[in-house]
Design goal:
It is a single chain. The chain has 1 helix and 3 strands; from the N terminus they run E-H-E-E. The chain has a 3-stranded antiparallel beta sheet with strand order 1-3-2, covered by helices on one side. The chain is an alpha+beta fold and about 70 residues long. The chain has one domain: Dodecin subunit-like (2-Layer Sandwich), CATH 3.30.1660. The longest helix is centred in the middle third of the chain and has 15 residues. Helices cover about 25% and strands about 60% of the residues.
Length: about 70
């Protein structure tokens, strides 16, 4: 029987939401072992001077405890 844990992370990108997700997962993989999946729980953005300046995602990352 496996026991999993879920942790919440936020990542950002100046190019788009997809890149923010990919960057967040790249960083999570460096710190967490046994990642089995993720869910994007929110999309947000920063506006500067009338233009989108940054895309942000908050994700719940699931991993198996050793």
């Amino acid at each position: 029987m496996a026991v999993a844990r879920v942790t919440k992370i936020t990542a950002s990108s100046k190019k788009g939401f997809q890149e923010a997700v990919e960057e967040g997962m790249k960083r999570a993989i460096k710190s967490l072992r046994g990642i089995t999946g993720f869910e994007v729980v929110s999309y947000k953005g920063k506006v500067d001077g009338g233009k989108v300046a940054e895309y942000r995602v908050t994700m719940e990352v699931t991993f198996i405890l050793e």
